[in-house]
Amino acid sequence: MSTINLREMRGPDVDMNNRLQQLCYAAVLFSTLLVGLFHAGIASATPAPMNMYSANQINAIFRPVQPQFDQELRSVLGDQEKVAELMGRYTKWAFEQAGYSLDETVQEFLSGQSGNPYEKAQFAQAVGISVIIQHVASQIDGFERGYLRSGALSPETIAIIVDGMKPDTSSRDWVLPTVDGWAYPEDAYRSEGKIRMEVSPYEPYEGDIWVGYVVLKNWGGNTYFVLGKRQDFEDQWLALFDKLVADDKRVVLQGEYRQYRAGGVDYTTVLVDRSKPVTLILPRPVVSYR
Predict the structure, then answer these.
(1) At which of 164, 187, 212 does a domain end?
(2) Shortest CA distance to 193 belongs to which of 144, 121, 264?
(3) Is residue 154 scored above 90 in pLDDT?
(4) Spatial CA neighbour of 143 closest among 226, 250, 223
(5) Contact assessment for residue 274 and residue 259, using Cβ atoms and an 8 Å cutoff
(6) Which has more confidence, 62 or 220?
(7) Do residues 51 and 119 share a domain?
(8) Closest by Cα among 282, 221, 229 to 254
(9) Nearest residue to 192 via CA among 271, 275, 96
(10) Percentage of the chain with pLDDT > 90?
C-alpha cells in the first residue's frame, strides 16, 4: 500500500410651514410605507420564476455587493457553517430585493412539477441554488446549520432536500473493499466527518497533479475526493471506474473523509477514509458495467 503525499496535490429634514402640514405629511408617509411593506411581504413569499430573466434580475441586484461578499467569503473558507451562513444571507437578500423568497424558490425547484427542466436547471445554476442544494444534500457537518442560521432555508426545506436527494440504492451499490493499515497523512486538516454527495468521476489530463490517482470531483466545484492511487486498486475496480469516466455520469459517494486545503491553491483536497466502508452508488446496476 503506497502512501498518499498531500504535497503532490498542489486555488431632509423637511421644513414644513405649520403643524398641520407636518401631520398630513406623516400620515401619507406612514400609509405609503405600510402599503409598501404589505406588498413586499407578499412578494418575498413568492418563488422566483425559474427562467434566465429572473436569474439576470437577481444577479444584477447581487453584483454591486459581489466584492464585499468575496472578501467575507475568503475569511471563512474552511468553515462550512460560516460559508453556508454567508452564502445563505447574501443569496436570501438578493432574492428579497427582487421580490422573491429563496426558501420558496428552492421548494418549487425541488417539486419538479412546473417549468421547463432545462430552463430550471440553468436558473438554479445561475443564481447559486444548485450549490446550496448540493451543500445540504451532502450532509457535511456545518452546511445545514449555516443555512438555517442565515434564514435562507427553513427546516421544512432542509428536510425536503435531505430526504428527497436520497438515491435508490437497489442493485447499484459499488462497495470498495477496505484497505488494511490505511491511515490519514499527518498533515494538518480543516475538518472531518461523514459524506453523502453526488460527484463525478474525474479523468486527469496529461501533466495534471492527479495523474495516477482515482479521483472524484464535485459538480461545478473545485473539491477533489481522492480514493487512492491507481496502483493500489485491483484491475476489476479500475475497469469499472474507467467505464464510469467514459459514461460521464455522476455517482453518489458515501463514506468518511478528512478535508485538507493547501495554501496558495484554489481547490480543496478531500481524502476518503479507506480503512472504513466506502460506497459508490451508480447510475445503473453494477452488473451492467461488467
Answers:
(1) 164
(2) 144
(3) yes
(4) 223
(5) no
(6) 62
(7) yes
(8) 282
(9) 271
(10) 24
